[in-house]
Amino acid sequence: MNKLAPGHAGRGHHAPAQPAIRSDLSAALPSLSLEDAQQSQPMGAPVITFDHVTKVYQAQPNKPSLHDISLQIYAGEFVFLVGHSGSGKSTFIKLITRELKPSSGHIYVADEDLTTMRDWRVPYLRRNIGCVFQDFKLLPNKTVFENVSFALEVIGKSRHVIKTQVPEVLRLVGLQDKLNKRPDQLSGGEQQRVSIARAIVNRPPLLVCDEPTGNLDPQTSRGIMDLLERINRTGTTVLVATHDREMVDNMRRRVIALDNGQLTRDQDRGVYGFDV
Ligand SMILES: Nc1ncnc2c1ncn2[C@@H]1O[C@H](COP(=O)(O)OP(=O)(O)OP(=O)(O)O)[C@@H](O)[C@H]1O
């Protein structure tokens, strides 16, 4: 069943998207407070809009990796993106971060049209999107503290901001005692917590995760999903691409299902729903 967000047309697969273009992306997005707030309700404005999006890779001209996808994800939602290997999940995420451009259709993040966005604006877009990957992507020769602080240094944050925000976020993910460890001195679950800390230290309003528990055992995976839920409760919109059936079935959040590049299901409190 498609859910209706307050004050908005349904999120049906073919809902027309007509957002106004805003020049200030940051102003258009809510900011993350690291203190746990009440469970936030989806707010009025869509954070992500796909409007008849098709993506065809040059290497596979006859087989769209995504075909005519239209949907909206609202501020404060927690959404699972599920589908078999090759169904288009990573392509979907790369379109949101503007690593890829669609072959046709439009994608809006906080009302900004990524299709027409100038290249110089892309780094500003990415400051608003925390990214978490299956393989953590930590810098091996840097400590936990340095891996997280680096994310703030590259966007020019002051030493004062770094000294306050990095310990705060490492406390949030439960790594306050591991600041000086290197990634190879941590478990897989701890490394993923560092990568989540790095993704949210700049308080992005949107967190996208591509198979965040793909390398972790079930118990560690539950800890990571609990953490993502806590981050979501602070108001951050969370999108998780996953194969983790148990997690999706237990958490009963919105599920968007892709099959061969087609949107086949968009369900509130959904289940994984594919045969393994
Ligand atoms: N750079 C590329 N060039 C050509 N085809 C690609 C490229 N990247 C992905 N594809 C194809 O696009 C389709 C979707 O791939 P995608 O990686 O988005 O799927 P996925 O659902 O994320 O898969 P997985 O769960 O295995 O990561 C597949 O058919 C894949 O072969």
TrEMBL record:
Keyword Cell cycle on entry: yes
Gene3D superfamilies attached to this UniProt entry: P-loop containing nucleotide triphosphate hydrolases
Any one cellular-component term (Gene Ontology): plasma membrane
InterPro entries in alphabetical order: AAA+_ATPase, ABC_transporter-like_ATP-bd, ABC_transporter-like_CS, ABC_transpr_LolD-like, Cell_div_FtsE, P-loop_NTPase
GO BP field: cell division
Keyword set, alphabetical order: ATP-binding, Cell cycle, Cell division, Cell membrane, Membrane, Nucleotide-binding
Pfam families linked to this entry: ABC_tran
Domain called ABC transporter: residue spans: 48-276
Superkingdom of origin organism: Bacteria
GO molecular function: ATP binding; ATP hydrolysis activity; transmembrane transporter activity
UniProt membrane topology term: Peripheral membrane protein
Family as reported in the entry's similarity comment: Belongs to the ABC transporter superfamily.
Summary of subunit composition and partner proteins: Homodimer. Forms a membrane-associated complex with FtsX.
Biological role stated in the UniProt entry: Part of the ABC transporter FtsEX involved in cellular division. Has ATPase activity.
Name of the protein: Cell division ATP-binding protein FtsE
The species this protein was found in: Slackia isoflavoniconvertens
Gene: ftsE
